[in-house]
Amino acid sequence: MDKTKKVVPYKYSEEGKKKQVAEMFDKIAPKYDFLNHFLSLNIDKIWRKKSIKLLQNSKPELILDVAAGTGDFALEVYKQLKPRKIIGIDISEGMLKAGEEKIRKKGLSNIITFETGDSEELKFSDNFFDAVTVAFGVRNFEHLKIGLKEMYRVLKPSGKLVILEFSQPEKFPVKQFYGFYSKNILPFFGKLFSKDKSAYTYLPESVNAFPYGEKFVNILQETGFSFVKSKSFAFGISTVYYATK
To answer: Rounded mean pLDDT of 9-33?
Structure first.
């Protein structure tokens, strides 16, 4: 059973995790980019850049960005790799709408496209993409292994997977500071700016429930991926995972 399945944004709701996550991101979409960069002190931008560099040698031409959100990762992928096509999917129409506006303003709508899609039921053919990327999205999957198996399926043989996700610092004093920040500061500013405290209470809860580090490496290997590697950033606050089909 996936540990992430038990953690949901709205504990009072009877809806499944998938629908709750979509509702949550629809609500916070207008303020998501601002809060994301503000609450991370823009460090998330550095994490994205370093993660995408892992794909430079493979030079992928067709890329799927899962849980694409407002398109920050897709834009950075294009900036660094200049692929022929990037398709971003997300279950939140509100987030994709914000992303489409950014893409349009940069004149990249013919290269980066977004569509509503479920990571557990990808509509694409087997062996279709050169690379699949996910930034801060896999912990929101309702069924983690199903989503990973779908990404494995749509990757071409020798295709690359890059997943950037939050993890948990384990050393003093970063562990203690991060715990205080997550439980107190994050929900406060989340509620102040997005009017949805549940969303930013859910964030640390979902991070705590996620099987990060070696546990996630093992899950990727169980899914079928090979040459799985991981690298932590900012003393373990986030981790990038790189694997090959």
So the answer is: 90
